[in-house]
Amino acid sequence: MSKKEKRVRTSKRNFIIALALLLATNILMAAALSMLAKKNLREQIDQRMLDIANTAAYMLNGDEIKLLQKEDEGTEPYNKALETLRAFQDNINLDYIYGIRQMDDGSFTFTIDPAVEDPGEFGAPIVSTEALRNAAKGTPDVDNKAYSDEWGRFYSAYSPVFDSQGNVAGIVGVDFNANWYDGKLNNHKLISLIILMVALTIGIVLSFVIMSQNRKRFMAMLKDIDRLDIATQKLNDEIMRTSIKKLDFLPDIESSLVKTLAEGEKDSQSTRDEYEEVSSNLQSVCKKLDKYMHFVNQNMYNDELTNTYNKAAYKKAIKALDGKLAASDYVFSVAFFDLNGLESINAHYGFEAGDVLMYNSGKILKHVFGKENVYRVAGDEFIAIMEGTNHAQMGLLFEEFDKEIKKFNDSDKSEHILGIAKGYTTYTPEAHENYRHVFIEARKNMKHNKELYYQSKNSL
Fold it and tell me: What is the assigned CATH class of domain 311-459?
């Protein structure tokens, strides 16, 4: 066999190997992007539904809600609750929002429904789901599966309304159309399938060209590989456009990662031969995959509005924290924060004004307590978990926090005053069995601080 024949055979074999690697990379990329993007999107949609339900539940008076009966329609307590729910119905992109009550036999019925057309009658039965039963026990939750009733097919979020004694006085339900919800998730499956089909189609074409053409056709094959690279980049961009974006909530400097996410690394120097060029293209695809997976992993646990960690990250953190409490010398503190007057600002100036305060609250909390320690857990509530921080150190951090709030309010960054109720507790083995006990005490201290704030405000 001549050197020329050996070189041609080696070229064919090496390019078949390169093609197989390219196809495998794109198949893995399609599977990884579909799985990670779908999971991230599902968590964001669920959290958005819970945020709406939690905010509405927080604005209702539990002591009044639990006493309402059908004959109370038109009274001041009934109309007050009705107008609160109607504000959400009219201003937020949702299908239905309504009040629910659990009966003595464990069933659920409508209380207040602000729907203009065909509202649920007071006392009419409601389909019981696992999420609804969890809310009745005091834990906000979202349906994992869609359910159907006479109004249509929906996914719903439920949040308990508490009375002044801390008991569940009622439940707020929020419905989202199941077709819209499922369509958002299925869209990622379609995009992944397109990526896979494009990769397989171009791969088959390239294999035919490699096996049937001579060396003169080699440059044409490289052009096809470039087209595959470009197609992958376009499809990555399409995934970003169909995801729930946080660009509306963040400054341009923080959204620049999205704009450069799918950009490949281009080699400015010309390669010496065809093998180096194939290697360069494969590296480009792998780098794009690494960037996208890093982006998805990073944002899977980020809150889209405040860029703090979200509730999913919070649950993961407290689970790990409880596992560390066996150490007798372990020290940590928990701080609880709740914005003052946010519902009033949302009602009078729109949710955009409230979003500005929420974003800046997260920014200040991250500055003082560290981004790695701050979590937005529900609505306008934040928690900072400070490992290795004792009671005295927390006191100093709270002093710094008060200064930052004052600095913000003295600036012209917002036309509305930012007020945040706060409280903290430091873990001690003698007083606390687990993280939840520390959390409850920190929340109690925050509520006391909030009461003092409103007492002071009302006395003016």
Answer: alpha beta
